[in-house]
Design goal:
- The structure is a homodimer.
- Chain A is of the alpha/beta class.
- Chain A is 43% helix and 11% strand.
- In chain A, helix 1 packs antiparallel against helix 3 and helix 4 runs parallel beside helix 5.
- The longest helix of chain A has 21 residues.
- Chain A is globular and about 55 Å long.
- The termini of chain A are close together.
- The model of chain A has no long low-confidence stretch (mean pLDDT 97).
- At the A-B interface, helix 6, helix 8 and helix 10 of A face helix 6, helix 8 and helix 10 of B.
Chain lengths: 327, 327
């Protein structure tokens, strides 16, 4: 089985975005009405077609990351919007239980304590069968005003993640800071920033079973693995394999062979989860290969990694990281 | 000849930091008095010893990046501090003209127009023989409030860089945002952010001879080269080799063999400049190799790159990018 741990519902029906526009405009949104057929139409020609074409089996599916927009409105805005998005993800996963497993958006809001997210997380996991969540380390959308992830500010949410035994993918949303292009800078920077925060602290001493997935191949981290090992050493921290790699995983959303080869060489196979971020950040065909940039399975297939390690990356690791995924 | 294009005066005599403390504390600083012998002592056991030990010849030398601190005080604070730092760099380069070529810090200040830096840039280049400068894309120190590098806000400074025929290394200073560790997140994020900004615009149509060096191996960019090629394509921009690589160069401050190998594989040799960022971000010995993490010459020597390409990286390219370097 080949499991893609990182896909967003970027192709959701227009009614969802209309609902959101009404909400953002300060109107009371109409009740969201989307038929099963509309949902089918939204994924049949996109995510499902791509699964078939590329030979992947199932995608861990969450709301469009760029549309979480935790910086818009207040906690109530975020709660209502998250509920609509998560309910729709739930419907997708029920219509296609063999193709999608549900991952939720959290109703974060800048400066609002993370325990505010617990009710929606519990609803999604306990009532709707979600297997994980996306945690935004910067709900301000590019201004980075929240305490670092190692701060006790986040602990109540971590306690709930541990109790429910679900991991969090550390994933920012769109950027409202013109310095940061969202998929080209903000996403990658957030991955790098989060990992460095984890090096600086000792979070996993307090939460030995907490699990984070850092997407987009870990941002800059594997490319600068020597820098991170060296910084940790200068800071008198344990070796990274002991300090963070029992709890931190990288996905494979890296869109060229040389990048994937580096990731597979530097990061232990036990810490890598297959993903493509589909339909996502980069949509075109690489003129140098003739294949889609985001067809990451192709790069892993072409790598020299032993078959056992490939199986870990495609399937075994996600079962350990996401134990609520049972298929 | 082996030229390291990226070194900072991290070992400057204590009197310099005392001067700075007086300034930051709002006192009128005493006149800075540092003897030639103090300068010799500050580099003999550090940068010069390392040059000898590692077999490099000359370092492009600029004030300590983390201490530029453009966010402290106002434009006058920054002007006075930059002048002291640059004068000291000038003295180092005069004492050791075969070991150091001078690169200046600019007196930037948040929200202050970049033309404010022109007088100090001209003084350094025309009067003191400096060959380049460091340009901070985020003088706020981690809050990213300045317009992107492609904005006309920066154009008067670019016009002067072109007129003087000196390049700018895009280099942030310390972070006063607790989200960003300075050498582990802010530096790397800034490199990534700057490159993405350059993709988004068409700056080099307006300044075809402007040259930027992006340090720390280009941040996350080479690792995500497929993503950046794909984003540029989705944005209907030219191929990156035509869009930015006639004007943008990456240094080799990547502290492990696999990272350097990726850089050398993905980025054309014409766009890579040798550097170690010494004495800099990571100071220890890699327990996996027994050599210093920041001994980047060793990784390039060990790579499979043809000798001609290595010579480009060690010497020929810097002569093209920094034509005022004459040795």
């Amino acid at each position: 089985m080949i499991v893609d741990c990182h896909g967003h519902y970027t192709t959701a029906p227009q009614s969802l975005w209309d609902w959101r526009k009404q909400q953002v405009d300060g109107k009371r949104p109409d009740t969201l009405r989307i038929s099963d057929q509309e949902i089918r139409d939204s994924v049949e020609g996109a995510q499902l077609r791509i699964q078939r074409e590329r030979g992947t089996d199932l995608t861990f599916f969450s709301p469009r990351a760029g549309s979480m927009e935790h910086h818009v409105g207040d906690a109530r805005t975020s709660a209502d919007w998250s509920r609509e998005c998560n309910d729709l993800i739930h419907r997708v996963s029920r219509l296609y239980p063999r193709n999608f497993a549900a991952v939720c958006q959290l109703p974060q809001s800048p400066g609002v304590k993370p325990e505010n997210c617990i009710a929606e997380l519990e609803r999604c996991v306990n009532e709707l069968g979600f297997i994980g969540c996306n945690l935004n380390p910067d709900p301000s959308g590019g201004h980075w005003k929240e305490p670092p992830l190692i701060d006790k500010w986040w602990y109540p949410l971590y306690e709930k993640l541990v109790e429910l035994d679900v991991p969090a993918m550390i994933h920012v949303s769109s950027s409202c800071n013109p310095a940061f292009h969202f998929t080209g800078a903000h996403y990658i920077n957030a991955d790098t920033t989060a990992f460095m925060q984890l090096i600086q602290g000792d979070l996993f001493k307090d939460f030995p079973t907490l699990r984070f997935v850092i997407p987009h191949g870990g941002g800059a981290v594997p490319y600068h693995w020597g820098r991170y090992r060296g910084l940790a050493q200068d800071m008198k921290k344990p070796l990274l394999k002991d300090h963070v790699l029992k709890n931190v995983y990288f996905d494979t959303c890296v869109y060229h062979q040389a990048g994937i080869d580096l990731l597979l060489k530097v990061i232990p196979a036990d810490n890598i989860l297959f993903a493509g971020e589909i339909v996502g950040a980069v949509r075109g065909i690489d003129p140098e290969t003739g294949h889609y940039f985001d067809d990451t399975k192709r790069y892993i297939d072409a790598s020299k990694l032993p078959a056992g390690d490939k199986k870990k990356i495609f399937e075994d690791n996600v079962r350990k990281v996401y134990p609520r995924f049972k298929l």
